[in-house]
Amino acid sequence: MAKAAAELSVTQPAVSKMVADMEHTLGVRLLDRKPQGVEPTLYGQALLKWGDAVFEDLRHAVREIQSLADPDAGEIRIGGNSPMLEGLLPAAIDRLSRQYPRIVFHLTQVMVAAQSFEELRARKFDLIVGRIPQRFAQEDLSVEVLFEEPMFVTAGVDNRFAKRKRVKLAELVDEPWVLPQTDSAIGSFVAEGFRASGLDSPRHGAICGTLQFTYAMVATGRFLGMFPRSLLHFGGKRFAIKVLPVKLPIKPPPVAIVTLKNRTLSPAVDRFIDCLRSVAKPLASRTKRRI
Question: Which helix (H) or strand (E) holds 288?
C-alpha cells in the first residue's frame, strides 16, 4: 500500500480509502491483507484482468486524441506473419512513411491464428495482416480480403530446372528441397499440394520454418522451395531465385486485414489500411483477371 501511495503521489490512508470505497461499491473484498502485505482476492483478480483492457482503451483514447490533434503523426501497432513482414508490410510502410515521416510503426511477428486474435481483442494490435484460417468465423472481428495467395515452386537461377519452360511436380520429388514443418499452416498447404498431385512429400533436403534459411538454400542452386506469391512480388528481386513453371493443385487461404469490430481506428491506422489496399492492388487485380 505504501508503494502504491508513492507511485500515485498520495498518502497511504488515501490509497486505503480508495480501496475501501471500491469494495463498498462492488460489495466484495478486493484485497486480502496479510502480515507480508496484500494480495488480490478472486474478485480483485477479475478487476485487474478487465482493468488492463479498460486502461489500454484509455491509453488508446489519449493516443487517438493526440493523433486527431496532429493527423500527420501517430502510432500503428501491426501483427503480421513472416511473409507479410518480408514483403507486403515493408512496401506499404515505406510508401506511407515517405508521406508521413512522423508516424511510428510497431511490428510484431505472429501466427495468424486464435492466439493472435486474442491479442487483437486485447488491443495489443490495431490490425493483423496475413492469411486467414480456413474456417474463419469470428463475429467480433472484421475481415477485409486483399488478395489470393497461391504458392510457387522456386529454384536458384543456376538450378538445372530454372531454364525449363515446362516442369512437372513429379520430376522434382527426388530433388533436395527446403520445406516448412508439416505441423505448421503453410507446411500443411505444401504437403496437400504433393498429395493432390498423387505424390509423397520429398524426402531429401531440409525442414525449416524460416524464410531466410529457405532463401539461402534455394539461392545455392541445389535446393528447391515454395514461396507465396506476394513475397516473390515484393521481395523476390532481392534474391537469386526463379519461379518454376509448375502447377500446384491447391488454393491456400487469401491474405486479409483483420481488425476489431466497433473499434474506432486512429487516422494513422486508417491511412495505413488505405495504403495497404493501394500497395496490394496489383495482386488483387491479377486475382480478378484469373477469376
Answer: helix 267-290
Question: Angle at the Cα of 30 (from 27 to 36), degrees rounded to 5?
Answer: 145
Q: Summarize pLDDT for 223-257 with one digit per residue, the tens.
A: 999 999 999 998 766 777 899 999 888 888 899 99
Q: Distance (Å, rounded) from C-alpha 63 to C-alpha 55?
A: 12
Angle between helices 267-290 and 42-69 (to 10 degrees): 90
User: Would you state the torsion angle of the CA atoms of residues 178, 181, 185, 188, taken in this order, to the nearest 10 degrees?
Assistant: 80
Look at the alpha carbons of 160, 162, 165, 171 in this order and tell me if their dihedral is positive or negative: positive
Give me the sign of the Cα torsion angle 79, 81, 82, 87. Answer: negative
User: Could you tell me the pLDDT band of residue 141, with boundaries at 50, 70 and 90?
Assistant: very high
Torsions phi, psi of 233, nearest 5? Answer: -70, -45
Cell numbers 475481415: residue: 143
Write the Ramachandran bin of 78: left for phi over 0, alpha for psi from -120 to 50, otherwise beta.
Answer: beta
